[in-house]
Amino acid sequence: MSPFATDWISINKVIGTNAVGGMASDVTVLADVTGLEVGTYIGTILLSSNDRTNNFVQIPVTLTIKNPPKAPSAGTSWSGSYSRKWSVVYQLDGISSNIHGVWGSSAKSVYAVGESGLILHYDSEDWTDVSPLAFTGNLNDAWCKNAKCSAVGQDANIFTVESEGGSWSGVYSLAGVGSLHGIWGNAANEVYACGG
After folding, report:
1. Where are the domains of the chain?
2. Rg (CA), the chain
3. Which CATH class is domain 78-195?
4. Which residue has the higher pLDDT, 78 or 48?
């Protein structure tokens, strides 16, 4: 068994023997996507046997690459705790603000907040900029309970959204308090913010 004129396919077992009527053997087919662009790639695996009536079988292989994450700039990497390696897996075009806080109520709903009023929403497939256009101060933290989320930031501003991916609106701007740096709650109607 071998890949037929396809350099991105590899096989873990190229020679094997099965007794007539015996158990089947598993073969692992791997695809190396290094250097491949977005698109569809067609390949063939050629299986040869001592079967007199069907000694060559061509097995078609299709590989589709969709929207790969953007690679970080050369030399960019982060080290996390417990010796884990962090890397950029997604970067929005046109967004240059730093992120200060992230909260997810599920794998299908994650919010990130940051500089210049930045609020991003992730729905398990894509990040979307859902920033309130009127606010240009920094946002420092976010917290969600079910679909209701709140974000806090500069000049004690508090923003909320009532539905998944909905529009954010300002609900409080506490004079003389300073910036809020953290938010957390036990329930949607019991939420605490801190700062100063």
Report:
1. 2-65, 78-195
2. 26
3. mainly beta
4. 48
